[in-house]
Structure formats: structure tokens, C-alpha cells
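Request: When convenient, would you put together a sequence paired with its C-alpha cells?
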Amino acid sequence: MTPNSHSCHLWGSGRVSWWVPSPIAALIVALLAVASGCAEGMSADDETTETTTVSTSENFEAGTKTIYTAAAVTLGSGTWNLTDALIGTTSSDVKAGVKSGRIRNSGHLTMGFDRSTGAGTVTIHHASFGSDASGTWGLFASQNRGTSWAQVGTSRTTRSGALATATFTVNLAGTIRFEIRKLDGGANRINIDDIAITNFTGGGGGGGGSGSGVSVHTTLGIPSPASATDPNAFLSVKADYVVSYNSGRKVPNWVSWELNSSYLGSVARQDDFRPDDTLPSTLPQASLADYMNSGFDRGHMCPSADRTLTTTANSQTFYLTNMVPQAGNNNRGPWAVLEDECRAIAQTGKELFIIAGPVFSSKSGMLGSGLSVPDKTFKVIVVLDAVGQGPANVTASTRVIAVMMPNADSQISVTADWRNFRVSVDAIEAVTGDDFLSDVDPAVQAVVEARVDSQ
């Protein structure tokens, strides 16, 4: 293990930075919000308890809108745009007070203003209108003033009767606004009431649960430091993975993601390779031209095939910030076979936490307009027994797979067995300076990180 301080700079479109100055620090000491982009990096949990102070609430009591025609309405929290939606006051409207929002068809309730303090959780009360059939709806977020949106967590289902509660864990800082969308497209109507949004407050230090405070995809910890001013260590939190981005090299330092069967479906590979529009324009990025005729693949860190449940999730993996120039024999050979192996393990009901990234040296090459080519690629895979497990469930017997593969066709065969490239986690930490599994008990880390997988 490499004892590092743990800090992170969140850029998930609305971006925040914090710095934890020591390995055992339990206090976030700085928050900085910057720039634009689409909001991603969120997971959802129903019926959770939130102790953070509510900073925005909306109960629809202050506004009036009696028709479904799209219009802006001034409510208690600010201006909202209601499309195919109105403010219901009838006896069939399920509500906490005398009014609630009502949506039909594919309508939506959209904040027309931004919050600058991010969001920890969003709690929404919901029910089917009167005796209408149950309906499906979802929460969406934008951190570029409504230019683009990403769904927060999973879709929810209403039922008639009393208001039910849905709580979404967002954990993003910076500029953010939300939209509630009816997703089933039917004539059945849905009531929405008592929306409550808490501020983002960050998490603890390394070893104290800081990773889970950022995203489910960093549940086992933040592998390396970052700061609010370092353009080479920005942490971009997306819905389906987390990136520490290095704008000097135009590649990620590492990418971290959760993998279990809930992420796997039948969506086709999107192949929409593109620069990452969730990063601020001041951060240099790779371009498609940098890879063209280079002899290197656009090598995914979080694989496309790990995100096949929705088109949005799959498309998100094609940001160039999730890629490094990767030798074809590496990318299409043992690296790809190991990816398949991880998905096969996930399909058995296991919970995997995976971190992948590049390894550089003073002799590393460069493509195009400053795109760095790594000497090797690494991957660390922690296999837990059940979905939902975390740092406390990592024991001395937990399977941890670590590999480093040469990133040159002359040094690796496309038919090579990935098992031939297994190393210890300690070996990867020694060359990257990262501290993997940083939220796991240090005594357990010492055991599992020194061992080379042999299964």
C-alpha cells in the first residue's frame, strides 16, 4: 500500500472540489464549484434517512396553473416550467396540503433556476391521481443550465392512495437543477408533492468512507489525490463510472466503477466516440483526430459492454476521457478476455469494484496534439460476495485480481492469457503512486494487496 493523502475534485458537469490533506483526515476542508456540463454520477435509494439541512423545498402551495399547456410558474422555491402538467387542487389530486403538481402523458416539471450548492439527496412524494392506473416517472439533473440532462438513479412507479416517498442520492456539488419526467407516456396522471433537496456536503477522509461519499463507483475509496487547482487530477463523477482526469496527458489517471448484473442488459454498442462535454472547456482533451491512423485503439477503461442496460449508460462510456491509446493486441486480446471474465463473475450475483488506468514513464510516447501513450495498462478488481457490499465486507480472503499489461503489440500477443499478467496490487501502487482500496481496513489491505491472484 502507498500511504497517500486523499483528495478529490468533482467535475460531473456541475463540479466540486475538496481536499483531504492527510491519510486519516475525516474532514473536507474546501469546496469549489465551477463551470458547465451534464450532470451525471448519481445513484438512488428509496426510503433513506437524510440528516443534512434541506436547502430547497417545493410544495406547490404558492403557485397556480389550471391547464396542461406548457408555461412557467412562480412557486415558492423559484420559477418552474410545467409542460403537460398543472397544479392540482381537486379532491382526486393526492397532496400533502391543498395543492400538488400533476403530470400526464410525457409531461415534466422542470426547475427554471440553478442551485449553486449542489445536491446531496432529492426527496419526492408521489402518487397516482385519483383512480388512475399506476405510472412511471424519473428524476433528471442538469449542470449546464438545462442544455443536457441525465437520469438520477432508477425510474419509480406510482400507485393510487397516499403519497409515497422516493429519495434519490445525488452527491454532486456545483451548479445543478432538476426535472421530474413522466416516463410511461400514458394518459394516466401522476401527482408530485413536497420536493426537498439537500446541499452536497462531501465525505470523510481516506480510510473513513470518503469514496462512498463521492459515488457508488468509488465505494472502496479514492485511489489518488487531487485538488481544486490541479488540472491533472480532476475527478469527474458520472452516472456509470468515476474518472480522475489528467488534462496534461489528455487521458484518465484512473477510472473506477461498480459492476454487477444490474448494469447488464441488451443495449447495442453505441460507438459514439467523442470528447467529454461534461468537462469545463478550459481543460484540454484528446480529439478523434489524435487517434486517427495512430496505430492505437481508443481503449475503454470502463468497458462499453459493462454498461448495456440503457442507451445513455452505454453512450457515456464513449467519452474520450474514459480512454487511453491502447495497443490492439492488448485491447482486443487479454484485456478484452479479462473484461468478459468480470462480466461472467458479475452474472453469478457477485459485486465487483474495478479500477483501471494507464502506467507512464519518462519514455512514454505521444500522439497528435499531446495525447500521451501509456507504457502499460493496469486493472484492479475486487470481487465481493453480494451486491451492496462495501469496505466492511472486504476480508483477508476476498478475491482481488490485479494485472499490468504491456501496451505495445511487440510485447503482448492478442492470444495471450490474461492470467500471465497478474501482479499484486502493491506492484501497481508502486508504479502509479495510487492507494487502492483506501477505505478498506488497513490491516486487510496489507494482506489482499500483497497477494497475487491464483484462481
Observations:
- The two ends are 22 Å apart (CA to CA).
- The longest helix spans residues 334-346.
- Confidence is low (pLDDT under 50) at residues 1-53, 202-209.
